[in-house]
Amino acid sequence: MNISHRVAVFIDASNLWETQKVKGRLFDLDKLKQYIAVTYKAMELSIFYYTAYPANGTRDYSLDSKHKFYTYLTKALGYVVRKKELKQIHIQTSAGTRVEEKGNMDVEMVIDAIHYMSTFDTALLFTGDSDFLALVTYLRNAKKKVYIYSSKNNISSELRTGADGYVELLDITEDIWGNQLKHRSQK
Asked: pLDDT tier at 187 (50, 70, 90 boundaries)?
């Protein structure tokens, strides 16, 4: 692995969530930050976290803890949090109307990676979506090292082999895993 002093991390929260569900444990995002800093000997480290959240009134539970978590990431850990409200799409079917929610943050990740490209030598992408292969190619053509962090249940073969390296999150050191995943109790 090529070591760099300027590292930028781009975390797709939905991809990370899928990995956490398989593992049954949450990432300790402070320990993850420390792990990256040590592994890549980062003198400068920027971490971007991309997430979509439910609109108020769409859940039968409070969303306060989600917003407190985003504040913690920003103020305590120094992450840059990019967030937006999930869009509700009403789809007409023969059985009536059903609502789907969409909250894709791929465009925001790509814009940030390109916009901040002059500030890093190495990019770590926490995603498994093959759509990011174009970004990986673009960054590598600009002489950036790019590593993909994902899990075998959530990674496209194109993305896995198109970067400078791939790290299997399910096999990563136990040190970065935090609490057991708890399921919200049903009402």
From this structure: very low
